[in-house]
Amino acid sequence: MNILIVFAHPERHSLNGALLDVAITALQAQGHEVRVSDLYAMRWKATVDRSDFPDIPADERLIVASASSREFAEGGLTDDVKAEQDKLRWADTVILQFPLWWFAMPAILKGWVDRVYACGFAYGVGEHSDRRWGDRYGEGTMAGKRAMLVVTAGGWPEHYSARGINGLIDDLLFPINHGILFYPGFTVLPPFVAYKVDRLDDTGFDILAEQLRERMRTLTTTAPIPYRQQNGGDYQIPTMELKASLEAPGTVGFALHAAVTTQK
């Protein structure tokens, strides 16, 4: 299996870097081929601007979606973006690894998504009609590939529980799991989340490393998050509202979009 890890931490000699090594070693031991996009080491450009669309005339107003669509169709995107798109085409499984900063991914990783997910490549595909609203949310160009998050957090697991002050971790990661991974078609596995990492001693790291190895060993057998497909009949088109008959009693918010709730 071909596995791409997109790694977003500024210090390679860090806990995140050590976990990256653990994951690579575990995956290669199973015979998988692994590629890593180390965004900080690559000095990845995180902002979308006119330089991303070299063929747009200087006097033309920049509309990112249409410019992205045109440049993608004509092969005019920048070389760094095309290289990452090729990695995504190559990969059977994609892992995004990052520390949770201010309840989200680091800006450099969001910038990777902003630039690599070009219109026509990751979105804006498929039929738009009164029967379908494009190939997205379970369909699309990444359909058939798996994806998951490896996330480190300084807070306690209780802080990210249903009554925890930081909010439920599944809710915090929903925009990434559902919006960035499921949207273009990935089958999304439950995230691997490491808590209290700032207080981790050697024994704690050894336990955490073995837990990560186990997740890497079970990539092909782990049951995915059961998100509902957009065009599978669960949503009203074109309003994209979940049909009332499918709402489980007491289920609200993000949990509505999984056929079986993932909350603990």
UniProtKB/TrEMBL annotation:
Keyword Nucleus: no
Keyword Cell membrane: no
Sorted UniProt keywords: Oxidoreductase
Matches recorded under Gene3D superfamilies: 3.40.50.360
SUPFAM superfamilies linked to this entry: Flavoproteins
GO MF term set: NAD(P)H dehydrogenase (quinone) activity
A GO cellular-component term linked to this record: cytosol
Protein name per its UniProtKB record: NAD(P)H dehydrogenase (Quinone)
